Amino acid sequence: MSSSPPPADAPTATLPADTPPAVQSVPVPVDIPVESHPSSPQISPLPTGAEPETSRTYQLGPATHADSNSATFVQPVKKLSKLSDTQKASQKLRRQIAQEAHEKLIKEFNVLIERHSNEQADLVKRHDVKPEYLDKLKGTSKHFNAKREANLENSKLHKKSLEVNADRAVGDRLHINDIRQLVKDDPDLQNLSKAQEAELREELTASREEKKRGARPTNRSAAQDYHRHLEWFNDEINSLAACTGAAAVCFFTRTSLEDGFEPNWICSPNAANFAEDSLGRNMWDITRLFEQWACTMSKVRKPDSLASLREQCSKLINGGLKTASKLGTAAMNYQNYNTQVIERLGVKLVGWTHNKLVSPYEIHSVDDLRMLHNALVCGACFWMRLSKREMTRHKVDMEEREAAGEVVVKKRKARSDKGIPKGPRKKPGRGRPIEEEEATKRAGAAKAKSQVPPSNEYIEDSDLE
């Protein structure tokens, strides 16, 4: 289920008639008041299928998502240039050749499919199985599914493509078949060592991650990406609820008033009344509050300094410990981690990036703290609950280490008044002479009187003022 219609006081935008149905099913609030930002601009919805204008040159504006995240990789802006008549004729000829080759491929492929169907029918008769069973094996077996990994062939094609197509225009770039032939003819890409192959794979993986997670260079491209993902989330959540009965609620908002997309929400049909029943607010009220919080926090966000990274890492570690141990008063103990955390709470911290398990406040490198913070945020470093067998194994290991003379538990420093009998203070007048009590009172009063500052009425020397 997509987000339900907004309240009567929140008008929705009218999308064009040629907008895809999935986009039309997601209502878009046009006027969402933001109390902390009264000058919030009106955001008009951008159809997902809209094509950019060919005559417009896109420049990096001063208020884009890429500008506010300068440390993030920014995807390059596509250069849109007008083609000449010669280039148009060349492209038309290439399209005709490719179309003829494709038609020839389709004819031969149809013959192959027909022969394959006949062979599959004979196989069904010989083994006395249903045709659907063979189709299921063909679709689910791992031997018939292509693995989308950074293999060596794709890595070579990527490297050669960067070499030959880097300075070419969009219409003049070499086809994949031509690049594949260049790879075969290049002696430098043959008989590579293991280190060279690993380097090529890493370059391809890094390029894929940049295309996947790189910041959009303009607000328009960011809005198009936002609407496309919103449509995908809507379909997936509805399918998940229909297939498994899972309930889901998702909120989406901008993090800057300059962003070219609007806040929205999506929920499954069985979670439509969650906000009203549990929080006493409708979905649009929560979306507005979420937008206010996101825009405010993006302005007051602390830089990645040593102090801020230490604070954030400490909060993430202790918050994850409370969640994993199901104990709201749980706190991290770095000195006695094996006994006070693992043995007492039954959880273990996995994926620690620093060379030693110490408090983030004892790590003095910004790079090490940033690496730890990224691992905690993305989930590479997480808290894991231990089974009874793992707890028993850990306990035996601690006993063996202690028997070998290793200090397993670091004891606290002894109190300075250890061994001195303690008890309630004696009340005045009990067990003490009256003269001693009166002398104590007079001494206390004289001391308090001596600490009173002199009055300005009796100060004559200007140095005392």
Automatic annotation (TrEMBL):
<feature type="region of interest" description="Disordered">
    <location>
        <begin position="199"/>
        <end position="222"/>
    </location>
</feature>
<feature type="compositionally biased region" description="Low complexity">
    <location>
        <begin position="10"/>
        <end position="22"/>
    </location>
</feature>
<feature type="compositionally biased region" description="Basic and acidic residues">
    <location>
        <begin position="199"/>
        <end position="212"/>
    </location>
</feature>
<protein>
    <submittedName>
        <fullName>Uncharacterized protein</fullName>
    </submittedName>
</protein>
<feature type="region of interest" description="Disordered">
    <location>
        <begin position="397"/>
        <end position="465"/>
    </location>
</feature>
<feature type="region of interest" description="Disordered">
    <location>
        <begin position="1"/>
        <end position="69"/>
    </location>
</feature>
